[in-house]
Fold these 2 entries.
Entry 1:
Amino acid sequence: MNKQLVVVALGGNAILQPGQKGTFEEQYENIKSTCAQLAKMVLSGNYNIVITHGNGPQVGNLLLQNDIAKDTIPPMPLDICGAQSQGFIGYMMQQTLNNHFVEAGQENIPVATIVTQVLVDPKDPAFENPSKPVGAFYSEAEAKQLEAEKGFVMKEDAGRGWRRVVPSPQPLGIYEKNTVNDLLAANNVIITSGGGGIPVMLQDKKLVGIEAVIDKDRSGKVLAESIGADVLMILTDVNAVKINYGKPDEQDLSQVSVSKVEQLISEGHFAAGSMGPKVEACVSFAKKGKRSVIASLHEALEALEGKAGTTFLPD
Ligand code: ADP
Ligand code: MG
């Protein structure tokens, strides 16, 4: 059997668990156990993987660091914070993946992180309507205070608390996709488009960074399409996509067709800003005749084999 090319999009819980502070040790331990799952996929011999990941809490912390230190060190814009987070998260993944491979007696599997720029349209309506949560969760009272004191735009996030929101434009293309393909051809495990990629636009054919955050699930789909992946797999903190989420009649979806999911989307089953973009990314990828999967981080390999999570199939 030919190896399948899988784009794996990791959710925030792959790097930081709810309730944790975000120390180096916590993040390293989480990444180590996440990468144990990913290493299993590679070591099975059945899959080549390209990894992408969220960075909301990490960028949120960098923003806060900048804000606290602003009188001593000039604050960096959001695109720079995105690049920083790609670098340090990629570093931890490169190291822990390598160590898992070495433990399994495989010392020659190269792992590389690409600082990745993703093209957006400067006229994207998202710039008028900030919607992407970044950083810590706050109470409503704290949120109001931050709005008043710092001019943040704060919104309630899926019943879990209040967070700062920034513009979330649509990804149009992965600027480094040829580099991804070259490294894939050389059998690398690749970490790319972290945090949805660094948003950039073209001005007179030249790149310029933009202060925004691109949804990593949307970019993951664009990435999967642009490198011709066989599977788009989105790993998160729930075991499956659910209908009637959070209600007494909540139900897991195990296998769904594109047309069935489109009906469920129109009925409003998937929250914007959390499950919504994941389901939309999966539908859009499956429409091209491919398979997409949403599953728990802890059941990645099982989900790839159709034994866990939610699988989206073309009609
Ligand atoms: P990630 O960091 O993995 O992107 P998100 O918090 O953005 O995680 O999305 C996962 C969350 O989506 C779940 O923890 C759950 O609270 C929420 N969610 C909203 N609607 C649904 C649904 N229909 N089925 C399952 N989870 C849902
Ligand atoms: Mg998310």
Entry 2:
Amino acid sequence: MIVVLTGGTGGAKLIDGLAAEIDPAELTIICNTGDDCIFHGLHISPDIDTVAYTLAGLIDDAKGWGIKGDTFTTLEQLGRLGADTWFKLGDKDFATHLMRTRLLSESLTLSQVTSHIRRTLGVKAALLPMSDERIETRLKTADKEFSFQEYFVKERWQPEVSKVFYAGVEKSKPAPGVLDAIGSGSGIIIGPSNPVTSIGPILAVPGIRDALKETSATVVGVSPIIGASAITGPAHKLMAAMGMGTSALGVARAYADFLDVFVVANEDKSLRAEIEELNVRAVTADIRMNSPADKKRLAREVLALVKK
Ligand code: FO1
């Protein structure tokens, strides 16, 4: 079993490549839920849905989230009724959130709901939320506090963030199956996801970081950064806010206590020596995933590293 920790669109692209290279039933995906949000009374789990839609062949590839070809009639009508419409929920996407919210209201856990959604969408990989409890990534500026989606979508990641925290994480538990998967996986992959808002919340759930340190499986991380910028999104800005620098070295430092191998961009080969000083093997690759062939190539390279 190959276990992937992920959040956001970069991780989902690698998972797409992995599912093309090995039997998807051999994959267990542990997803960030710190980005979860409530809109129009519905529980939305963007990172879980991005992975589920990717593996179901439904993802809107151009955007990296949502369902391809989706329409926005319901959202438009909600707008006429006075609702906020800056978070773009498509009509088909709404069905996922209606079903999730209904099952949660019938006392199913987020893990059980996630399992239902991935099964009914025909996804063979196991999909686990990091926790069944509500954990919310919050971002502080000098005078305001934002939820992740307010910061990322509404404010287009422009506010100067001074602090990021994961509300509720201290008292949370890993979802059923998460620690077992990390302990018994044959390889663990940390996706090329934002280390502060995608992987950070997963690592902050009590027990998960220790499980990564203790597993006998090879743990391979993939950098989400090239040079001093994220491939997509605000990872470099949020890393700077957290005092982590803005390079792949900062990501390696954040994971060094449990990482065996770190894959960095060819452009970052000069960082190899400093990464290896952290006791982490550094490997270079073309980490941009702009096409199905790119995703498969990187997936093959990462699989070769975890299988060693
Ligand atoms: N991202 C955007 O940039 N704009 C949106 O309006 C938006 C809506 C949305 C709806 C459902 C969903 O599952 C994801 C959505 N995303 C949107 C992406 C989401 O903000 C990000 O994928 C993650 O939370 C980042 O990890």
